[in-house]
């Protein structure tokens, strides 16, 4: 069962990391070349669509990694580190990134300079989540691979004589 459970953090952290990386290397740089008001609208629309799934994926990846660390095994430290990285996204986002999000998503009028500055700041802060989630995905994947290679047994014949 633990081997099957190891798939959960791989999938959840992989989906989170893939989305975060796509935003960091594709979507956000595209926003930075738009005029400020269109970039702000795009940010608001994108954020509204992605935020709930990313929060859920962070919780699932972090909780499943924490559970695997708790139940032990040879990869306990990898699971614990992946759990800290994924669950650490939540306070990072709430305490550090939300103020920038709130400013960019507010209905108050911001100057083009304020919008561009906010978007640059958000991109740097989001990159922390990208790097952390890619690292957590790597750890979860390595742990699963180590578990699979460590559980290999001699093949048994179908019929024994």
UniProtKB/TrEMBL annotation:
Membrane spanning residue stretches: 6-25, 55-73, 79-100, 126-146
UniProt keyword list: Membrane, Transmembrane, Transmembrane helix
InterPro entries, A to Z: Anthrone_oxy
Any Pfam family: Anthrone_oxy
PANTHER family found in the cross-reference section: DUF1772 DOMAIN-CONTAINING PROTEIN, YALI0E30327P
Protein name: DUF1772 domain-containing protein
């Amino acid at each position: 069962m633990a081997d099957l459970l190891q798939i959960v953090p791989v999938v959840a952290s992989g989906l989170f990391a893939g989305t975060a990386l796509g935003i960091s290397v594709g979507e956000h740089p595209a926003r930075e070349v738009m005029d400020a008001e269109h970039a702000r609208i795009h940010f608001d629309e994108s954020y509204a669509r992605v935020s709930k799934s990313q929060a859920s994926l962070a919780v699932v990846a972090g909780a499943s990694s924490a559970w695997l660390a708790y139940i032990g095994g040879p990869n306990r430290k990898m699971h614990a580190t992946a759990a800290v990285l994924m669950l650490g996204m939540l306070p990072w986002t709430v305490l550090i990134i939300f103020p920038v999000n709130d400013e960019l998503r507010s209905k108050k009028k911001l100057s083009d300079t304020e919008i561009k500055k906010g978007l640059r700041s958000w991109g740097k802060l989001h990159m922390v989540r990208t790097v952390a989630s890619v690292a957590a995905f790597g750890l979860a994947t390595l742990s699963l691979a180590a578990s699979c290679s460590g559980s290999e047994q001699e093949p048994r014949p179908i019929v024994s004589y």
